[in-house]
Amino acid sequence: MQITNELYQQYKPILFSIGYRMLGSVVEAEDLVHEVFLKVYQVEEDKIENVKAYLCKMMTNRCIDSLKSSRYKREKYVGPWNPEPLLFEEAHALDPFDNVLQKEGLSIAYLRMMEHLAPDERAALLLREVFEFSYSEIANVLEKKEDNCRKILSRAKQKISGIESESLNFENNMSIINRFIHAFEQQHMNILLELLSENVALYSDGGGKVKAAIRPIHSLPSVLAFLYGIAKKTSPDYYFEIKNVNGQPAMINYMNSNLHSVISFYIEGDKINEFYIVMNPDKLRLQLVDDFFSPITEN
């Protein structure tokens, strides 16, 4: 099949979106997108009835294969694993008219929750809930019967039912995070108690390459102690910015003239329930995603 620049630009966003949501890795998603286009180049065009369906099927199945092969690698990962952050250009809410690829199933909390799903469950959930594929289309992608796909999806939704209560109101979450930062800096414990869940947890991802907590930290006192411990070790030139990361406000931290970490939040009921700190340098490229998430037009 002839791969024109127009065709590449048209379908690259949805293939990258599937890959990133399935794998939580920009590098792996990019690699698979290129692999899919190289492969489809070798396919005779008259054998492809629907280009989008064909490419999505190829991408999804490569992601499933990658997840199966990388499971051992994930289990050997040092400390908690967090998805690689994606940076949007502006630190404000996404335009409601932007493509749906920008809005659903993209938060760090959602992507972390996906780790609890088997590869086919992950694929069925994304294709149905995020990309709005029909059951017949999902069955074609996964090469399973429709009834089986319905059961897979039901099982997946049961496993991640807790994430459905996540607040995705950008402006409201921005207000909560700014209030938290101010209260943290001023050590206003009464406000911190108001903003943080009693069962708050913190997941620090250093990947064994930088110093980080190798186990999740649970309970409000322990999380605050850990955060204040980090604050005491900041360099004189430390500063942070609030940016749009994975569609939600997050702290981008700089220290010693370098990007140090990204802190994302899971907010539910106007309270911060979880912190996700990414310090692994391999995950701190903070690539802008405008090109990947541009609107897709249909043939």
What does this structure look like?
45% of the residues lie in helices and 15% in strands. With 299 residues, the chain is of the alpha+beta class. Among the domains are: 1-76, RNA polymerase sigma factor, region 2, helix turn helix motif (Rna Polymerase Sigma Factor, Chain: A, Orthogonal Bundle); 170-283, Nuclear Transport Factor 2, Chain: A (Roll). A hairpin with a 2-residue loop joins strand 4 and strand 5 (258-268). Residues 95-102 and 294-299 have low confidence and may be disordered. The chain contains ten helices and six strands.
What brief labels describe this structure?
15% strand; Nuclear Transport Factor 2, Chain: A; disordered C terminus; Rna Polymerase Sigma Factor, Chain: A; alpha+beta; single chain; 299 residues
Could you write a compact summary of the structure shown?
The protein has 299 residues and is α+β, with helices and mostly antiparallel strands. It has helices at residues 5-23, 26-40, 51-75, 108-113, 119-130, 135-142, 146-159, 170-186, 189-195, 220-232; strands spanning 196-205, 217-218, 239-245, 248-255, 258-268, 271-278.
Order of helices and strands: HHHHHHHHHEEHEEEE
Provide the structure class. Answer: alpha+beta
Number of DSSP-assigned strands: 6
End-to-end Cα distance, whole Å, is 16 Å
Residue fraction in strands: 15-25%
Fraction of residues in helix:
40-55%
What's the CATH first level of the domain at 170-283? Alpha Beta
Describe the SSE topology.
Blueprint: H1 5-23, H2 26-40, H3 51-75, H4 108-113, H5 119-130, H6 135-142, H7 146-159, H8 170-186, H9 189-195, E1 196-205, E2 217-218, H10 220-232, E3 239-245, E4 248-255, E5 258-268, E6 271-278
Parallel strand pairs: 1-6
Antiparallel strand pairs: 1-2, 3-4, 4-5, 5-6
Helix pairs in contact: 1-2, 1-3, 2-3, 3-6, 5-7, 6-7, 8-9
Subunit structure: Interacts transiently with the RNA polymerase catalytic core formed by RpoA, RpoB, RpoC and RpoZ (2 alpha, 1 beta, 1 beta' and 1 omega subunit) to form the RNA polymerase holoenzyme that can initiate transcription.
GO molecular function, one term: DNA binding
Domain RNA polymerase sigma-70 region: 7-70
